[in-house]
Every structure is written in C-alpha cells, then in structure tokens.
Amino acid sequence: MSNTAVKIQEKQRQQPSVRPKIKRKRKFRLTLAEKLLFVSFFLFAVYASVQIVSNQVSIYQVNKHIQQLEGAIDGQKKHNNELYVEVQQLSTYERILEKAKELGLSLNENNVKVVQE
Predict the structure, then answer these.
(1) CB count, 10 Å around CB of 64?
(2) Which of 3, 34, 92, 110, CA to CA, is 20 to 30 A from 78?
(3) CB–CB of 30/38 below 8 Å?
(4) Is residue 29 classed as helix, strand or coil in its secondary structure?
C-alpha cells in the first residue's frame, strides 16, 4: 500500500495541477496623469477652435470695412470726374466772354496778350 501511495504522490508532482483559467473582465481605468492629459488636450482643442473662429470674425469685419472704404473711394472718384467735366464746360472761351459782357466788361483787342505754353 505504501508503494501505491508513493506512486500517486509522484504522479501529482509530475502533473502540475491544472486549473481552468478564469477570464476576468479587466476594467479600463485611467490614471490621474492620463485624465489630466485628456482634459488638457480637450481644453486646448476648445481654446484653439475659439481662437480660429474669433480670428475669422475679425478678418470678416476688416474685409467688410475695406469694401465700404473702396465703395466710398469709387463714389468720390465719380464725383471728382463729374466736377472736372463741369469745370471744363464752364471754362470755355464763349462762356467766359458771355459772362464778361453780362458784367459790363468789353473786349479790347489791343489789350489782349496771347500766352503760349
């Protein structure tokens, strides 16, 4: 009998006890440093997006102001051209002579000096 007991003990030593492995569900946990990293990345992303939108709004306002100024410049150029045409019409020789006669001035050919450029 003792021989049988020794054989059983030897078998147990040779064969490691095989227990079925229990698969545990591993909980996904973040460390404090990882949490801080994710929060800081999220805050940076929000800050960057706000900055981009803010810059776009300011660019839009500047472009709008530039377009308004260009429109005002075009209007002033048009007005200046109209005034130039009016000056050309009012400075004709016939009109000046007519206005001079209305004011009682007369044309004396002897006192006329011709200026050439």
Answers:
(1) 10
(2) 92
(3) yes
(4) coil
Per-residue confidence at 83, pLDDT binned at 50, 70, 90?
A: very high
Residue type, 95: R
**Angular region, 16: left φ>0, alpha ψ -120 to 50, beta rest:** beta
**Residue 43 CB neighbours (<10 A):** 10
- Residues whose CB is less than 8 angstroms from the CB of residue 17 and which lie 6 or more positions away in sequence, other chains included: none
Enter the pTM of the model.
Answer: 0.53
Provide φ and ψ at 60, rounded to 5°: -60, -45
Q: Domain extents for the chain?
A: 35-103
Model pLDDT for residues 19-58, shown as the tens digit of each residue: 667 777 777 788 999 999 999 999 999 999 999 999 999 9
Which are the contacts of 100, defined by CB distance < 8 A and separation ≥ 6? Answer: 106, 107
